[in-house]
Amino acid sequence: MIRVDPRSSVAQLMSSPAVGRALRFFETNADAITEEQIRICEIPASPFGEQERAEYLSQKFRELGLTEVEIDEEGNCLGLIRGASRSPLLVVSAHLDTVFSKDADFTVVRREGRLFAPGIADDGCGLAALIALAHVIQKERIEFEGSLLFVGTVGEEGEGNLRGVRHLFTKGRWASHVDAFLSFDGPGVDRITNRALGSRRYRVEFNGPGGHSWGDFGVPNPVHAIGRAISRLAGYPVPKDPRTTFNVGRVEGGTSVNAIPGSAMMEVDLRSTAQSELQRLDAFFRRAMRDAADEENARRRAGDPLLKLKLNLIGERPMGETPTDSPLVEIALEATRMLGFEPRLDQSSTDSNLPISMGIPAITLGAGGASGFSHTLDEWYDPRDRDKGLKRGLLVILGMVGHR
Ligand SMILES: [Zn+2]
After folding, report:
1. What is the pLDDT along the chain (404 residues), one digit of tens a residue?
2. Which residues have beta carbons under 5 A from ligand 1 (an ion)?
3. DSSP classification of residue 176
4. Which end of the chain has a smaller Cβ tally under 10 Å, C or N?
């Protein structure tokens, strides 16, 4: 990477007339950026259903003059802005997917300055940032020493298990060429996520013979077993520090009020800021599931078949950290301060987890504005002051790959 002094380089950038024009673009084009965000967010993008949104983004990339535009084997949308040299190569990304199912209503409703829609902020504002950044680079003819690979990733949320970014860094054709990674995810202008929060996610299934609620009473009941399992997990004594959390996010099972279910399942998310705590929680969780099955089986009618437990690991996110003295973090800190905000280093679970775990400098930034009720159908985004987030993003990009 280019060795830079972040303080002087960010100040120098801000004094360049071309950069000044580019920074003002985000203010004068605020409405158009919001219109673009609405267009892209109204294209449904459920987990494993991002294709239409990826096609729209690739169309945008082409219109904005990006080259080598493609949708890769995994479904990521890629486009290059070539500088004087192919390296350093910085990935600038946002995620295409949402946590919502295909049949959710993705129509954006505007009310009192706010935009309401599932995924409008997470990661609608990140996608809007990608398009706005590519637009200003083209319009102001900003030239770079290194190059930028713009990427809309698939599978950041939930069961996607970072499949898009994982492909990008392990199998994709750019895999060994990326020098640093920047992701825009959610709103805000002070947050710099440089630490990757680890998580493990499971689908738990209990399967039994099923039967009639009266006639077969005593047959082991998978829904009762789920109840026992949740009760055990809910009693886990989490430490305050390091912060450790668990969540049963989905439960399913049974067909009728008077039938003993043949199966039941739940999905569980376990997280911790420390590897040792995550392992401890994971071990407790597995034992709790086995004990719940044993307990339900111990009460079964003599001669009835056993209830079976199946644990499927459906997600595993690696943890790690981009050091605070790495140029990427230093430039982000300095750019945040230059815009008048107090930077906040943060730990979260984002696309950056994957490059961080491979030792590639990576951070996730807010894309400006404010939001609430993320991951619910009441999610909203307020685009006021979005320009601050975009300005910071552009300064970080320029600081990393060099302005010519
Ligand atoms: Zn997100």
Report:
1. 455 577 778 889 999 999 999 999 999 999 999 999 999 999 999 999 999 999 999 999 999 999 999 999 999 999 999 999 999 999 999 999 999 998 899 999 999 999 999 999 999 999 999 999 999 999 999 999 999 999 999 999 988 899 999 999 999 999 999 999 999 999 999 999 999 999 999 999 999 999 999 999 999 999 999 999 999 999 999 999 999 999 999 999 999 999 999 999 999 999 998 889 999 999 999 999 999 999 999 999 999 999 999 999 999 888 899 999 999 999 999 999 999 999 999 999 999 999 999 999 999 999 999 999 999 999 999 999 999 999 999 999 999 999 98
2. 122-123, 185
3. G
4. C
Burial label, 309 (beta-carbon count in 10 A; 0-12, 13-18, 19+): buried
Measure 158 CA to ligand 1 centroid, in angstroms: 10
Question: For residues 172, 176, 180 and 181, what is the CA-based torsion angle, rounded to 10 degrees?
Answer: 20
DSSP letter, residue 231: H
157 Cα to the center of ligand 1, angstroms:
7
CA 373 – ligand 1 centroid, Å: 13
